[in-house]
UniProtKB/TrEMBL annotation:
SUPFAM superfamilies: Sigma3 and sigma4 domains of RNA polymerase sigma factors. Pfam families: DUF1492. This is RNA polymerase sigma-70 region 4 domain-containing protein. It comes from the Bacteria.
Length: 141
């Protein structure tokens, strides 16, 4: 695993959590549609009740999974933040935090650091080399 892959775990986990949140919202909307359809019906509709129950059970499972992923995310963020803090060059440290902890794009990082995007990409490459020098043995398999 490279330094970039190691640090990107946090962003990837954040994207996964967000995807699961969106799925949960979608299921919530579906369950409300099924419920409102049921309340308008005068006839017994056990099949629709079963659908709603399945949706709600899936939502509960998703929320548990999201909660577990959030715990993993918090632990990983604390670990990676601490490792980034070991980088001595403040430019490298700032760049790595903005990119991998805050999830900023390189153009936004360039604006915040008052550098050109190309220079930020060069600094990023050097920051990854420094991070790898300090911590490479921990995540290389």
């Amino acid at each position: 695993m490279t330094a970039k892959e190691y640090l990107s775990q946090l962003l990837n986990l954040e994207r996964l959590i967000e995807a699961k949140r969106l799925e949960c919202e979608r299921l919530d909307t579906m369950s409300k549609k099924v419920s409102s359809t049921l309340s308008e019906c005068k006839v017994e509709a056990s099949h629709d009740n079963d659908k709603n129950a399945v949706i709600i059970i899936h939502m509960i499972d998703l929320k548990k999974d999201i909660s577990e992923q959030m715990k993993v995310y918090a632990e990983l963020q604390a670990k990676i933040s601490k490792e980034i803090d070991d980088v001595e060059d403040i430019r490298y440290r700032s760049l790595l935090i903005m990119r991998y902890i805050n999830g900023l794009k390189f153009g936004d990082i360039a604006d915040k650091m008052n550098y050109g995007t190309r220079w930020v990409l060069i600094l990023h490459r050097e920051a990854l080399k420094e991070f790898d020098r300090l911590h490479g043995e921990r995540y290389c398999a």
